[in-house]
Write a structure and sequence with these properties.
Elements: E1 4-8, H1 15-28, E2 33-37, H2 51-57, E3 62-66, E4 71-75, H3 83-86, E5 95-99, E6 108-111, E7 128-132, E8 143-144, H4 149-159
Parallel strand pairs: 1-5, 1-6, 2-5, 6-7, 7-8
Antiparallel strand pairs: 3-4
Length: about 170
């Protein structure tokens, strides 16, 4: 099972931006990276009228669409899946980066912007392994500036003892 790290922070803190910069940095190190985005509301990834959407509307509990370039799946669930329940869908990865999941018992990297929130969310969370912020804070974990994505990637590779994929 690959390590899972949750990138957490207040809404608008820049979690997605950090992840979209972190993924290519980790990939440049020869790592296979999977991502999971937590969404608190219902969503659709297909458009009304498309064949896969029509399959789902007809009652299929699990619908997949496949092409030579990607696979997508929509599956009915009876609860909000934990990261451990989702990880098997990402087999073959060296690391899984999750956006959100701040309540999970997983290692966390918090993105903190003091202009959005008064204090970091993970002040008392023993799972916090790093902080990404421009603020001069000391939380007894490594702190990275938002511009230091390479440093954050190297830290994660070292922290999780990640090796280049074969």
């Amino acid at each position: 099972m690959p390590p899972i790290v949750a990138v957490v922070g207040s809404s608008g803190s820049g979690k997605t931006t950090i992840i979209e910069r972190l993924v290519p940095e980790l990939k440049s190190m020869g790592l296979r990276v999977g991502t999971i985005k937590h969404h608190l509301h219902d969503f659709d990834i297909d458009y009304p009228g498309k064949d896969s959407w029509r399959h789902k509307q007809a009652g299929s509990e699990r619908t997949m669409i496949s092409s030579p370039h990607r696979i997508g799946m929509v599956m009915d669930v009876d609860h909000d899946y934990t990261l451990d329940e989702l990880a098997p869908f990402l087999t073959g990865m060296d690391i899984i980066i999750a956006e959100g999941y701040k309540k999970e018992n997983k290692p966390k990297v918090e993105i903190f912007r003091p202009e959005i929130h008064n204090q970091p969310l993970c002040l008392d969370d023993g799972n916090l392994i790093a902080l990404v912020t421009e603020a001069d804070l000391e939380l007894n974990v490594p702190r990275f500036l938002t511009s230091d994505i390479r440093g954050l990637a190297r830290f994660l590779a070292t922290h999780f003892n990640l090796k280049k994929s074969a």
